[in-house]
Write a structure and sequence with these properties.
The complex is a heterotetramer.
Chain B: H1 2-21, H2 27-54, E1 60-68, E2 73-80, H3 82-106, H4 112-131, H5 135-153, H6 160-191, H7 199-205, H8 215-233, H9 242-245, H10 251-260, H11 264-272, H12 274-277, H13 281-302, H14 308-328, H15 332-359, H16 377-391, H17 397-412, H18 415-440, H19 447-452, H20 458-473, H21 485-492, H22 508-529, H23 543-550, H24 555-601, H25 608-630
Antiparallel strand pairs in B: 1-2
Helix pairs in contact in B: 1-2, 1-4, 2-3, 2-4, 3-4, 3-10, 3-15, 3-20, 4-5, 5-6, 6-8, 8-11, 8-13, 10-15, 11-14, 11-15, 13-14, 13-18, 14-15, 14-17, 14-18, 15-16, 15-17, 15-20, 15-21, 16-18, 16-20, 17-18, 17-22, 18-22
Chain C: H1 2-21, H2 27-51, E1 60-74, E2 77-87, H3 89-108, H4 116-135, H5 139-160, H6 165-198, H7 206-214, H8 231-244, H9 253-260, H10 263-288, H11 290-295, H12 297-316, H13 321-342, H14 345-376, H15 392-405, H16 412-427, H17 429-453, H18 461-466, H19 472-490, H20 493-506
Antiparallel strand pairs in C: 1-2
Helix pairs in contact in C: 1-2, 1-4, 2-3, 2-4, 3-4, 3-10, 3-14, 3-20, 4-5, 4-10, 5-6, 5-10, 6-8, 6-9, 7-10, 8-10, 9-10, 9-13, 10-13, 10-14, 12-13, 12-17, 13-14, 13-16, 13-17, 14-15, 14-16, 14-19, 14-20, 15-17, 15-19, 16-17, 16-19
Chain D: H1 6-26, H2 30-54, H3 61-91
The chains are: A mainly alpha, B mainly alpha, C mainly alpha, D mainly alpha.
Chain lengths: ~500, ~625, ~500, ~100
């Protein structure tokens, strides 16, 4: 490949944000190494600035038609929209990190890892080549493994969580890659576009191997997406991770992995979609059921949120499962579904983790019982938490309702109504624990005995500025997407997805 | 003219409203305003009666739309025909006397305003019922009079018996009302209107039918259902149980509602629907037999009752049975005639009994009375007039009307009915003179009470005297001498259509027999209780029969053991099901979800390798399924 | 006219926002805001009456609020979602009921100490949602409103309940949550399947859906002959309705909610929220899936009459007023279901009457008993007797409520009752005859309650001194409800006329 | 050039993958677990390289892919060992079963 072709390859259009974030990451890494601990705040802000700049670049990208560079990176609808979401997520996480960094006494080399995770995530959504996708996936994963282990306050849980994440993630990567290797073997291609063209013949000639490859890929991604029964690392990792990292792995890596899964599965396997995607449907159903069911009896707040995110992953999987029966005309609908709900989910989850962080740090609350009297002591914070929980439960006036309803309409449209029914039925199951938390917040505190006084510190919970901004933004996002969903839905309607 | 008819019920309504809202004013005010405002009603009622008499066959009708159903409109308003006009006179006339009497009777009661507002509401409802242009409005006020009865029976609500009796009166009549309700709706749907004037015509044309029931059956079913309503209201067998208990209310109330007017509404209803009833032979037979059996049955019970009001209450049941009997055998005019006379003499008996009770400070037990003739002469003579009327002794009112019924039965040749009626007539004469003797004759059985006994002042005696006159002379309205004035009046109108006069000549035989039977009854009573003999020992041969009668043939007990307890049992069962089964199931579902959640929770062992194993199992299951699918198994 | 509906809907909404966002005011201030805005809504509903044309066959006072669209929701075409509101006779009747009850909640029920904000906020949100439920013109708006009522009421139950608030609130939430799932699935399924069968664009609007169902008024009449929804859709709808209406055996949440909630919330739940299910059945079942209603007519009749009797028997064995009220409401709703199941125009009009009437009577009883409880501290019968002596006014209202419950003529309950049976006798005579038992049982249980509480001897002299009968400030709301119940019973013409137009709308074929 | 049957190579990879998986799920020592994961990745690499030469459409991509995979695996194992070290410092153990402070 000559230099000339390289230059003609619209690198900036496809990889601009990635470059910016990557460069920021390196700068931040270097600075973190040399600057004294006192200027950590500045460094995190610098990282956030980099993300903002990347966002600006991305907006610029959106104004030009989709490009493909190096047969690897693309700036199609899915790439740009998910990149936007990822950058927004990254920004929120970084802001949250600003405060978490202080309170959790994390080692300073954390901001750049967040940025590298973001780079990986961006690569996952922009790449259309299996090799690049894999690199992105691993970049994100490895950064996350490290990040999870960085929580000093609960050292052991942190390391253990990270260890479990790493082992399971490693197995997942291997399984995923093993599946991918068969695809490569059958077609000799790693470019998704080429694979998409070969998809039908792949299915017609080598159905057996294709099924195995499909399942391996699904299981590999399932581990990353924490789908049931591959989800079991999730609560432990969430419990161990610093709050900002927990927010990161529950949102950023989910968004990126879902986008990747959508691309990989749909591009490679649409030839046999009718036979293959029902597996995903079943997986989605099991995930929704088991995720909610597991959260039902959970009292540890982090683990509860972890299981809830498992369940939410089930909801998010529905649009992908629907590709099995959807006609090409209906595909954009499924993209819309997925991205809209991902956006909603991101706001809800980061918001919830932000509140949870304050609870943990300032009131030393880890269990649901600790929420007793929360509503009375910190009404605004409690109100925000309630909004996030209502959103997760899919109540109207939050984006959760619109998102779920939208996914549901797609299940009806594509004739997989049973999945829609499971969606709403398990939502009712989730009422029990989401509203259970709300209920606890309004309980008056019980008389306390010695150590049982956990979380019942007097007075309001102080809200640091950065976290406050995060909560406010998430609140705004949640409510805006519920009250005026058009602000996201209408742009989504215009996106040329593929 | 129709405006007049409209005004008739409005005066008592006005009086009721005034009484209700000006509670603080003294009792005399309420009594006065009630009586005064009822005077125009009485006058208008009489004017209407005369008007209808002057224009035979006229039907005054004035309606406004009340509710528009998708299939037709329902109207409310007034309708006056001969029957209505007669009823208006009866109701307003008896009411005004009772209003007067009440003040004497309840002078010291502090809730007199409530009493008068209830009573006025009752009169209004009764008048509106009578004036109803269609069956639905009739039903509306049918229930309203029931409500007023409930309220007045429960007037002394603090007495547990009164509270129970009030509920019982409402619930038992409600059973009948349910039948009436069904009947009205069936007819309404079949005919497309609630105007009952059209029903008999439709029935005769054979167009009265439902999708699931053809014409003759529908008429029979509907009339039987309506008759159930009448049975409930007029306390006929087997729904008579509420009326004796309703005597817990103030005595004037018993006189007005439970003797003269409301209980007669059942008879009025059957009379009103007579043309339709006449279309169904089955119904007519049922009506006649229910009436006859009730007449006898109630009079048998009345023989042995200890409570003066209960005796008269059973007598009412019995007399209403006569009216039903009359209607059932087709003697329409005679039935209504008996209603007319009965209203006077029975109101009289109640009021006189009330006077006695008032004099004795509230006691109603015959065993504590006696010898009151001298202390309360007006009461005695008026009561005697009533008793003679009730016994059917010439020339008192009851003689003419009761004999007309028996004569009609005889003329019809239905000997069973005739005999039932005759035996009842004998019992009637016996039990009422038993009361007369026990109350007024002989020596006082309780000196204390006797010493304080006195007449109740002019507000009480004037109504008694007026009613006494009517009880004596009202029968002359329908005698062969005046060419059966009332019968002609009633049958002259087109609706209800004229029916053949039940008998057209002097039924001397029948008159003689019933007079003789009545005198025998009185004689027996005189022999047993006359001359202050007081209660006789019952010969042991009659003991079981006596007990049977004394205990009202155990009807209440039967109901209590079957319907009431059955219902309560069922209710308790439902309660158990609800509290334990359904609540339990709800909890079980909750436990199920929670339990499964807990089981699932134990899979989170904290061991990485368990996690991996679960993932592997998942993969393997998928692969196995895939293999089977490729192999065509799934 | 549309602006009136705007006011009705957004007055409580503004109230909700204001209450939620205004910083700590005194309870009294929050209540003042609440009362003012709820009154505004009530007045606007009153004004709607004056402008409403019963003769028109269209939805009136239509408010269209373009909102957003779901991209590519139907074969690549966007599905436009608007917040569309409008009224027909049925909507207006139920809207009025809701406005009255919610206004009374605002002005006449006690606010627990320190919970002024919570109550004002959630009641106003619930009130917005309830108004929206009854006036929604498309499925999305309807479902949205149903869900909002769900969580608004949850918070009310949670914060304000007098006893066992946690359990009550969660039970309510889970039961009705399941119901809303059924409603969502069936209604959206209905919209999609009708679009699929008719090969027409997807729509969620009532008018279009009803037109499709009835095969009239569409552009291509030949194509759209007559659409009949798959039976499972209707079954799901029915299940949702059964839970919303608290039909046995899915009623378990209801007695608990009535028993434990504070008076205001109990009025909201018993007086308004249990009417949404029947409203849905009328709007969607009768109006859009008439064929299915006819197919399932025996199911409806069985469940309806079953509930009528079950509710009556359970009320008979009740030992306190609140339980009696809840089961008598269940009993009334049973009759509503029976009436709807007959698909007779008269009966359906009756069902509408019954809905309004039951809401008013339930509220009346709840309000009255709350006043009684404020004095006696209990509503259990074994601790009450002879209340008519110390509390004549309240006892009078209690008696009136009981009489209205048993469907005494000239009270509102009778109108619906006779119409329901009127249609019932035409179609299901057997069921109707069995149902007559309910007429008797209602008298039994209401009057038993009266006998045990207000009648009978009043023995406790010490308490008598403490009991002070209600003053005007306390009884005027009850009197108002009494007047309404009486007015509808005595002069049913206006309401009947409005409902008549709705019946004609729902059943253009004539039943 | 020696003829290498695809099937045997794939079988080798499959066996290696399974051994790796088995090891990862059963070995008691964390280091052994990590090594087992490495074995799984090696199996993948064998696959890739095999297909790069003997696949349906042989090309170099597979080998490039394998190179990337090896690199990434190295990074991953480095992190893994760092974690094991941290874990050892905390618990004085490298046993898998000791990483159980979080459950349920």
């Amino acid at each position: 490949m000559s230099l000339a072709t390289l230059l003609q390859a619209h690198l900036w259009t496809t990889m601009g944000p990635l470059f910016v974030v990557g460069m920021t990451a390196i700068v931040v890494m270097v600075l973190e190494l040399f600057l004294p601990a006192a200027s950590r705040k500045f460094i995190v802000l610098l990282a956030a600035l980099g993300v903002v700049v990347a966002g600006v670049v991305l907006v610029h990208t959106m104004s030009v038609p989709p490009e493909l560079s190096l047969d690897t990176m693309v700036s199609d609808g899915l790439a740009t929209v998910s990149s936007m979401l990822l950058l927004a997520t990254g920004l929120l996480v970084l802001l949250l990190h600003l405060d978490v960094n202080e309170s959790e006494e994390m080692p300073r080399e954390s901001s750049f890892l967040l940025l590298f995770a973001l780079v990986g995530a961006l690569a996952m959504v922009t790449a259309v080549n299996l090799v690049a996708l894999y690199i992105g996936l691993e970049l994100l994963s490895v950064s996350s493994y490290v990040l999870v282990a960085l929580r000093k306050r609960h050292r052991q849980a942190s390391v253990e969580g990270s260890m479990k994440y790493l082992v399971m993630g490693g197995i997942g990567s291997a399984v995923f890659l093993y599946g991918v290797s068969f695809i490569y073997g059958l077609t000799g291609q790693t470019s998704l576009y080429a694979l998409a063209q070969a998809s039908l013949s792949l299915w017609q000639h080598d159905a057996a191997i294709a099924v195995i490859a499909f399942l391996l890929i699904v299981v590999g991604l399932g581990i990353k997406l924490s789908l049931v029964p591959f989800h079991m690392w999730t609560p432990d990792a969430y419990e161990g991770a610093p709050s900002s990292v927990a927010a990161l792995i529950s949102t950023l890596s989910k968004t990126a992995t879902f986008a990747l899964a959508l691309r990989v599965l749909v591009y490679i396997f649409n030839g046999g979609a009718h036979d293959l995607f029902p597996y995903i449907a079943v997986l989605a159903a099991i995930t929704m059921l088991a995720g909610n069911w597991l959260a039902l009896t959970q009292h540890n707040l982090r683990r509860l949120l972890a299981f809830s995110s498992v369940a939410q992953a089930g909801y998010l999987l529905i649009p992908i499962a629907l590709f099995g029966t959807a006609s090409v005309r209906e595909w954009p609908d499924l993209y819309d579904n997925l991205l809209f709900y991902l956006a909603v989910y991101t706001f809800l989850t980061i918001g919830a983790f932000a509140v949870l962080h304050l609870l943990e740090h300032h009131r030393d609350v880890t269990m649901a019982d600790g929420l007793t009297g929360f509503a009375k002591k910190s009404p605004w914070l409690a109100a925000s938490f309630i909004v996030f929980l209502l959103g997760l439960a899919g109540m109207p006036l939050t984006g959760g309702f619109v998102g779920k309803f939208y996914i549901f309409t797609s299940t009806v449209q594509t004739g997989v109504l049973w999945l829609g029914i499971v969606l709403f039925a398990t939502s009712v199951l989730s009422f029990f624990y989401y509203f259970g938390l709300i209920r606890t917040m309004f309980q008056s505190p019980l008389p306390t005995y010695g150590d049982a006084a956990q979380g019942q510190a007097e007075g309001r919970t102080p809200v640091p500025v950065a976290t406050g901004i995060v909560i406010a933004l998430c609140l705004f996002g949640t409510v805006a997407l519920g009250v005026v969903p058009g602000i996201l839905l209408h742009p989504l309607a215009l996106v040329q997805w593929f | 003219m129709s405006m007049l008819a409209l005004l008739v019920p409005l005066f008592p309504l006005l009086a009721g409203v005034i009484s209700f809202f000006f509670r603080r004013l003294p009792g005399a005010f309420h009594a006065t305003i009630s009586v005064v405002l009822l005077i125009p009603s009485v006058v208008f009622a009489i004017v209407l009666f005369l008007y209808v008499h002057a224009h035979p066959g006229v039907v005054l009708r004035q309606v406004i739309p009340w509710l528009v159903l998708p299939s037709f409109s329902i109207h409310v308003g007034i309708q006056v025909n001969a029957l209505t006009a007669l009823m208006l006179v009866i109701v307003t006339f008896v009411s005004i006397l009772v209003f007067m009497f009440s003040y004497g009777y309840l002078r010291t009661d502090e809730r007199l305003s409530i009493y008068y507002s209830y009573l006025n509401l009752f009169v209004f409802s009764m008048l509106a019922l009578v004036l109803s242009p269609n069956l639905l409005q009739l039903y509306l006020f049918w229930e309203m009079v029931g409500l007023c009865s409930y309220l007045l029976v429960g007037y002394w609500f603090a007495k547990p018996e009164a509270a129970r009796a009030a509920r019982k009166s409402f619930v038992v009549t409600r059973i009948g009302d349910a039948g009436l309700f069904a009947g009205i709706l069936l007819l309404g749907f079949a005919a497309g209107t609630f105007n009952d004037a059209d029903y008999s015509i439709l029935a005769r044309h054979g167009t009265l039918a439902l999708p699931w029931l053809s014409e003759p059956y529908l008429v029979t079913l509907a009339t039987l259902l309506i008759f159930i309503g009448a049975v409930g209201k007029s306390a006929q067998l087997p729904l008579h149980v509420w009326l004796p208990d309703a005597m817990e209310g103030p005595t004037p109330v018993s006189a007005l509602i439970h003797a003269a007017t409301m209980v007669a509404a059942g008879v009025y209803l059957v009379a009103r629907e007579f043309p339709l009833f006449a279309e169904s032979h089955v119904t007519m037979t049922v009506v006649a037999y229910v009436g006859a059996v009730t007449a006898l049955f109630a009079s048998l019970i009345a023989i042995t009752q200890q409570d003066i009001k209960r005796v008269i209450a059973y007598s009412t049941v019995s007399q209403l049975g006569y009216m039903m009997l009359a209607l059932g055998i087709g003697a329409y005019a005679d039935g209504v005639f008996h209603l007319f006379t009965h209203a006077f003499f029975k109101a009289l008996l109640f009021l006189a009994a009330g006077s006695v009770i008032h004099a004795l400070g509230g006691t109603q037990d015959l065993a504590l009375m006696g010898g009151l003739r001298r202390k309360m002469p007006i009461t005695f003579y008026t009561f005697l007039a009533g008793a003679l009327a009730l016994s059917g002794i010439f020339p008192f009112a009851g003689f003419w009307s009761k004999d007309a019924i028996l004569g009609a039965a005889m003329a019809k040749g239905d000997w069973v009915l005739y005999l039932l009626g005759l035996i009842a007539a004998f019992c009637t004469a016996f039990y009422i003179f038993r009361v007369v003797f026990l109350t007024f004759a002989g020596a006082p059985r309780d000196e204390d009470l006797h010493a304080h006994a006195h007449e109740g002042g002019w507000v009480m005696t004037v109504p008694l005297v007026i009613l006494g006159l009517f009880a004596t002379f009202a029968g002359f309205i329908n005698t062969p001498w005046n060419d059966d004035f009332l019968s002609r009046f009633l049958t002259a109108t087109k609706t209800p259509k004229p029916i053949p006069a039940s008998y057209s000549h002097w039924p001397l035989t029948s008159m003689a027999i019933s007079l003789a039977v009545g005198l025998c009854g009185i004689g027996l009573a005189a022999w047993m209780y006359g001359g202050g003999k007081g209660f006789r020992k019952v010969p042991s041969a009659f003991k079981p029969w006596y007990a049977l009668s004394r205990n009202k043939f155990y009807v209440d007990e039967v109901y209590s053991w079957t319907v009431v307890r059955g219902g309560k049992l069922l209710a308790a069962l439902v309660d158990l099901v609800d509290r334990y089964l359904i609540e339990g199931l709800t909890r079980l579902v909750g436990l199920f979800f929670y339990g499964i959640g807990n089981v699932l929770r134990y899979t989170q062992t904290g061991q990485i390798q368990t996690y991996g194993t679960f993932a592997l199992v998942g993969l393997v299951v998928f692969l196995v399924v895939a293999v089977f699918r490729v192999g065509g198994v799934f | 006219m549309a602006f009136l509906l705007w006011i009705v809907l957004f007055a409580p909404w503004i109230g909700f926002l204001a209450t939620a966002l205004l910083p700590r005011l005194s309870d009294r201030m929050y209540q003042a805001i609440h009362i003012v805005l709820q009154s505004v809504a009530l007045v606007a509903v009153g004004a709607l009456w004056s402008r409403f044309h019963p003769a028109s066959s269209h939805y009136q006072a239509v408010v269209r609020l373009p909102w957003f669209s779901f991209p590519d929701a139907w074969h690549g075409a966007n599905l436009t979602i608007g917040l569309n509101f409008g009224i027909d006779g049925l909507s207006l009747g139920l809207l009025s009921l809701a406005a009255v009850v919610l206004w009374l909640i605002a002005v006449s029920t006690r606010v627990p100490e320190g919970l002024g904000k919570a109550r004002a906020m959630w009641v106003q949100l619930a009130s917005f949602a309830v108004f929206a439920t009854f006036t929604a013109l498309n499925i999305f708006t309807f479902l949205l409103a149903i869900e909002v009522t769900l969580f608004a009421t949850f918070f009310l139950l949670l914060r304000l309940s007098e006893a066992d608030s946690q359990r009550t609130a969660i039970k309510f939430l889970l039961y009705r949550g399941v119901a809303s799932v059924f409603l969502i699935v069936s209604l959206v399924g209905f919209a999609f399947s009708s679009a699929a069968t008719m090969a027409e664009p997807l729509t969620l609007g009532y008018q279009q859906l009803a037109a499709r169902a009835q095969g009239v008024a569409t552009a291509n009449a030949a194509l759209s002959a007559h659409y009949s929804a798959p039976q499972w859709i209707f079954l799901l709808l029915l299940l949702g309705v059964f839970i919303e209406e608290a039909f046995v055996p899915l009623h378990n949440w209801f007695p608990d909610a009535i028993k434990n909630a504070d008076t205001g919330t109990a009025m909201l739940v018993g007086g308004v929220l249990t009417k949404t299910g029947a409203y849905a059945l009328l709007r969607f079942g009768v109006g859009m899936m008439p064929a299915d209603v006819k197919i399932f007519t025996y199911v409806l009749a069985t469940v309806g009459i079953g509930n009528l009797l079950y509710g009556a028997f359970a009320a008979w064995s009740a030992r306190d007023w609140r339980r009696l009220i809840s089961f008598s409401s269940i009993s009334h709703m049973g009759l509503v279901l029976f009436a709807i199941g007959t698909m007779q125009a008269d009966a359906i009009q009756g069902a509408m009457f019954l809905l309004v009437s039951s809401g008013l009577i339930t509220s009346l009883l709840l309000l009255t008993t709350s006043r009684v409880k404020a004095r006696t501290l209990t509503l259990e019968w074994r601790q009450l007797s002879g209340l008519a002596k110390p509390l004549p006014i309240l006892s009078g209202f209690l008696l009136f409520g009981a009489l209205a419950t048993l469907g005494l003529p000239l009270t509102s309950g009778f109108i619906g009752e006779f119409q329901s049976f009127f249609g019932g006798f035409a179609v299901h005579p057997t069921f109707a005859f069995i149902g007559l038992l309910g007429l008797i049982l209602s008298a039994v249980y209401s009057l038993t309650a009266i006998r045990k509480t207000t009648f009978g001897p009043f023995t406790d002299r010490a308490a008598a001194a403490a009991y002070e009968d209600a003053r005007m400030a306390e009884w005027w709301p009850i009197a108002l409800l009494t007047m309404l119940v009486l007015f509808i019973g005595i002069v049913p013409y206006p309401l009947g006329h409005v409902f008549l137009s709705a019946v004609h709308r729902l059943l253009p074929i004539g039943g | 050039m020696i003829h290498m049957p695809v099937a045997s190579l794939l079988a080798l990879a499959a066996v290696l993958f399974c051994i790796g998986l088995y090891g990862a799920l059963t070995k008691r020592n964390l280091i052994m677990v990590l090594v087992s994961i490495e074995m799984m990745l090696s199996a993948v690499n064998i696959n890739l390289v095999t297909f790069s030469r003997l696949g349906a459409a042989p090309n170099l991509t597979g080998q490039v892919f394998a190179l990337f995979s090896i690199t990434v695996a190295a990074a991953e194992i480095a992190v893994g060992f760092a974690l094991v070290l941290a874990f050892f410092r905390l618990r004085k153990s490298t046993e898998v079963k000791d990483a159980d402070s979080q459950k349920k």
